[in-house]
Structure formats: structure tokens, C-alpha cells
Prior knowledge:
InterPro entries: Bet_v_I/MLP (IPR000916), MLP-like (IPR052006), START-like_dom_sf (IPR023393). Belongs to the MLP family. The protein is of the alpha+beta class. The chain has helices at residues 17-26, 31-34, 129-146; strands spanning 4-12, 41-45, 58-62, 70-79, 84-92, 98-108, 111-120. It has a seven-stranded antiparallel beta sheet with strand order 1-7-6-5-4-3-2.
Amino acid sequence: MAQIGKEEVKKPIQCSEVKFYDVYRNEAYLLPTISPCNVKKIKLGDGTSSWESKVGSRKLVHFDEAGLEDFKDEVVEIHPKAKKITYKVLEGNMMLFYHSFQATLEVTEGTAKWTVEFKKKNHSCPDPDYYLHRLDSVNKDVNAYLLPIN
């Protein structure tokens, strides 16, 4: 029987919430530069012609050089005033373990929170701790990148 789950990681950020959200919303192409240990490559997918995230836009993300952690996602919801964006994973090795996998970034005053909702294929499939750790690590790198230089 498939298991449905929801987990989150919420951490403080010191940079501008607007700029932080904008990296994910409009400048995701910067992620391999900002967080090279976590994001090896990112490119537009399936006819997406702009880096501005809109509902239906897709990206191909490569977490590692070997291609074992590649995935394709699609933006399914955007709430600019709330600085919230939701992605649904369409393809990738993680889908060996999950029937569905969705990640939502919400940036509020002084915090960035990722919430993942997933449906495991069976009880022996792993929890998404690895992916939450990656998302948290990318957030730390984005925060550091956006901090003013003293």
C-alpha cells in the first residue's frame, strides 16, 4: 500500500526575501553558479522559452555529474505576493520510489521553507530526507550569495 507523506525544512535567511524568491522565480539559471556542490546543471525543458517561472514551465535539474539525481519539474502554482512557488516532479530517478512528489518553496520574513508532499510506491521506499537536505543546502548557498558584501 502506498504511503502519503509531508515533510518540511524551514531555516532563517538574512538576505532580502524578495531577492531570495526571485532567484527561484526568475533566475534559476544561476543555481549552478550559486550552489555548485548541489546543482550541477539546470536547463529549460519541453518548450519552456523563458527562465521566468510560470504555471506550466518546466526545467531539467541535474544534482550530480553521473546523472543519477536528474529530474524534470513543472511549476504548478505561483503566489507572488506570498513569495510561494510549487513544483511537481515529472520524471527522474526519484520517481522510482514515489508515485508523486511535489515541493513548495515559501519565503516569509526572515525564513525560507520547503515543504515536500509525496506518495511512496510502497512502505520500504525511503523518506525524502536526502532531497530536503539538498533543498536546504541550496537555500543556504542562495542566502550567502545574496548577502551584501561588507
